[in-house]
């Protein structure tokens, strides 16, 4: 479903995949740092969190 800006909502699977990729970029010493990719992922994750699409806390 699209939100008010016309962007498609991120699924739980997409959200988890983006978090995993961000973790890999930041923490895997064998992966070259890609600042633009890190900021892009952070923006997408933050947009979902700010829109109320947070994952349930355990």
Structural account:
By secondary structure, the protein is mainly alpha-helical. It is built from two helices and no strands. The longest helix has 16 residues, at 12-27. It is elongated. Mean pLDDT is 82; it is low at 1-5.
Q: How is the main sheet built?
A: none
Low-confidence stretches: 1-5
Give average pLDDT, whole number: 82
Percent of residues in β-strands? under 5%
Note the gap between the termini: 26 Å
Q: Write down the secondary-structure element order.
A: HH
The DSSP helix count reads 2
User: Roughly how much helix do the residues carry, as a percent range?
Assistant: 55-70%
Shape: elongated
Q: What is Rg?
A: 13 Å
**Number of β-strand runs:** 0
Structural class: mainly alpha
Summarize the topology:
Blueprint: H1 12-27, H2 35-50
Protein traits:
58 residues; mainly alpha; 2 helices; 55% helix; 0% strand; disordered N terminus
Summarize the structure.
By secondary structure, this protein is an all-alpha fold. It contains 2 helices and no strands.
């Amino acid at each position: 479903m699209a939100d008010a800006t016309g962007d498609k909502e991120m699924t739980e699977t997409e959200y988890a995949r983006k978090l995993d990729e961000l973790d890999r970029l930041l923490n895997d010493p064998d992966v070259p740092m890609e600042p633009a990719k890190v900021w892009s992922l952070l923006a997408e994750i933050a947009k979902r969190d700010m829109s109320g699409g947070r994952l349930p806390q355990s």
